[in-house]
Structures are given as structure tokens and as C-alpha cells.
Write a structure and sequence with these properties.
- One of its GO terms (molecular function) is double-stranded RNA binding.
- This protein is α/β, with parallel strands linked by helices.
- The chain contains six helices and ten strands.
- A ten-stranded mixed β-sheet has the order 1-8-2-3-7-4-6-5-9-10, sandwiched between helices.
- α1 crosses α5.
- The mean pLDDT is 92.
Length: 204
């Protein structure tokens, strides 16, 4: 299903529909402030496994990211942040960043692995943040990647639907996406190491 949601004022009815689907175990494709993402409710293990199969991800080895509504969710999944890290995150979020943080014991329980880190995103996109706010917990996040060597990321939601529509339950059309991924910042050592420079320029 392809569902059009307008980012300016997302329709609460449509948001609730998506949340109901996520609670039933749906895998969705959704807009962010960078490229479109594939995700599901992180608490639904079957849906998480489906995302892993679609993207050929090894849940035990690959780095996983969550999308949160705001910083209030973060302490549920990460070890206590020092003041400096929290301030930098607060200054830059919502925005096009993935912050790699030290995971607490909740993350391995969710994914049956022994990962010590987790990526956290709070994108500047009202559609996905309203969905997460209504859902009440983060969603798993991984990028929609195009196999085309020249076009790494597909930006047109209708083309994304053509390609992935059979594999996912719902594609949200929130307008054209970006083709530059988020900037990945490693904060696990109390410092800020840019692992991948993407759309975001980190402000200190």
C-alpha cells in the first residue's frame, strides 16, 4: 500500500492508521530528513527479522539504528550520557545525524545479540516523529538503498513503492526524499568522531 501523508500537518487519522499497522507487526518505508528508511516497531521481533531479511542484515553483527521522537526515549536504550554529549545532541537534533552511543542491557534483549552500541536518530521530519510519538517507542531504522551504481539512494516514493511494495506492508509517500544520508557521529568514547560525513554539519 502507498499512503500519501503531507509533512506540513500530518493527518492524525493517517498517523494512527500507520501506528495500528506497526503494532500488528507491519514493516513500513517512511520519509526522514535525509533518505527514505525501512523500519518497524523495535518491540516486534518478527517484524525486526523481516527488515533484516529484506535488507540482508545480520542482526547479531550489523550496526542497528533507532528513530526516536525526541531525546526522552534515549535513556531507555543507552548508558547514561555525559553532559557534553547530551548538550551536543540537543543542539543538533532534530536533524540529519546518527549518534552512535553505548547501549544498555535493553538493546541485546531486543535483538538477541551482544551489541554494545546503538545508533540513535531524531530526524527533522514531522511524519515519522508523529508516528513514533503515537506509537510510544522507537522504530528500527535502515536506509532504502538502490542497487543502481550511479543512484545510490532512490528519492521518489513511487519508485520506492514499485521496488519494495511487495516486500513491505506500507510505503509512506511524504514527498521526494534526499539522496544524501545522515552524518554518523561516534560518541562512545566521550568524544565526537565523524564516521561518515553526510547531510549534517555538527555544531558544538
Amino acid at each position: 500500500m502507498l499512503l500519501k501523508i503531507y509533512p506540513e500537518n500530518p493527518n492524525p487519522k493517517e498517523i494512527r492508521f500507520v501506528v495500528d499497522e506497526l503494532k500488528k507487526g507491519a514493516v513500513i518505508i517512511y520519509p526522514t530528513d535525509t533518505i527514505y528508511g525501512i523500519g518497524c516497531d523495535i518491540n516486534n521481533s518478527k517484524a525486526v527479522e523481516r527488515v533484516a531479511r529484506i535488507k540482508n542484515i545480520n542482526l547479531k553483527k550489523d550496526h542497528l539504528s533507532f528513530i526516536c521522537h525526541d531525546l526522552s526515549h534515549i535513556s531507555d536504550y543507552t548508558k547514561t550520557l555525559d553532559n557534553n554529549t547530551f548538550k551536543v545532541m540537543k543542539r543538533n537534533l532534530p536533524g540529519p545525524f546518527t549518534f552512535i552511543l553505548n547501549a544498555n542491557t535493553n538493546v541485546p534483549k531486543l535483538f538477541k545479540n551482544n551489541k554494545k552500541t546503538v545508533g540513535i536518530r531524531v530526524p527533522d521530519n514531522s511524519i515519522i516523529r508523529e508516528i513514533i510519538k503515537e506509537l510510544g517507542n522507537p522504530i528500527l531504522s535502515t536506509s532504502v538503498i538502490d542497487e543502481d551504481d550511479i543512484i545510490e539512494y532512490t528519492t521518489d516514493p513511487e519508485l520506492i513503492y514499485e521496488k519494495y511494495g511487495k516486500h513491505v506492508d506500507l510505503v509512506i509517500d511524504g514527498g521526494y526524499g534526499d539522496n544524501t544520508p545522515s552524518t554518523i557521529v561516534n560518541c562512545t568514547n566521550g568524544d565526537f568522531e565523524i564516521i561518515r560525513q553526510g547531510k549534517g554539519e555538527l555544531e558544538f
